[in-house]
């Protein structure tokens, strides 16, 4: 009979070496590189690397590559049951010994140096951090990351979807996006943009008579759309109809401005909306919990300042069935 017949004997042989036990103890406390382990254990790299290979081959460790460095950690709960139980016994005897306490103090110093390195970088980079972050990750990464707060079970209506930019941003984070627009040309552009997206439906229809059933949506968005419609109140009431009780509407549009040329050049009907006007219109459509917030100005933007308003359909609303309209198209 050998250790293959009784695997615990192989585990016992691995743990019979104090250096390997010290390595496991350190890596159970903190993920470390080889050089950091050498400093914690005060051993040469050749010795540490040799023991790491034994532990890795035995399934005791997990390795994570990052650039040119490897980070090691104890496999922990991923260990086989007998190995985990054996290590628990050994760890109980190792913990608190003079060697273990010295290793723990040196480990604290290694971690503190990591933290100091980060703090030194931010102290020197604070003045250039924003442009550096933008250069590395782009202008919108932080806003896109916030979409992770969306509920994955939501059905979202992108009302007046245009070329599908909002639908494209939302689609990875929710169950379904239903993108609606009254312009066939805009829908064609959206279909091209969203051809690789999943969970997106494209429908053609006016904002005043949406091709959606009552209470079909968890959330609806109206982004830079309300200033184009002759009857905003009718559009907001229709948005309330297609929201579930408790569903939320987000309106993003322009604050009041005096750019009359927008009427001629871009077909704008309204030259922005003030806070009291939006609050009145949303309340008149039956929404509650209305909030209006001006958005920070983008120094590169040439248009008027923008706002975002949110509102909620009350929970007490009744649900009526409305037949589904024929889809104008769908993104695969």
Overview of this protein structure:
It is a single chain. The protein is of the alpha/beta class and 332 residues long. The protein has 2 domains: 7-129, Orthogonal Bundle (Arc Repressor Mutant, subunit A); 141-331, Rossmann fold, CATH 3.40.50.150. The protein is built from 13 helices and 10 strands. It has helices at 7-15, 18-29, 34-41, 45-57, 81-94, 98-125, 129-137, 141-146, 165-170, 184-193, 232-242, 261-266, 275-284, and strands spanning 61-66, 69-74, 155-159, 176-181, 200-204, 217-223, 243-254, 288-294, 306-312, 329-331. Strands 8-9-7-6-3-4-5-10 form an 8-stranded mixed β-sheet, sandwiched between helices. It has a two-stranded antiparallel sheet with strand order 1-2. Strand 6 (217-223), helix 11 and strand 7 (243-254) form a beta-alpha-beta unit. The relative contact order is 0.08. Mean pLDDT is 89; it is low at 317-321 and 323-332.
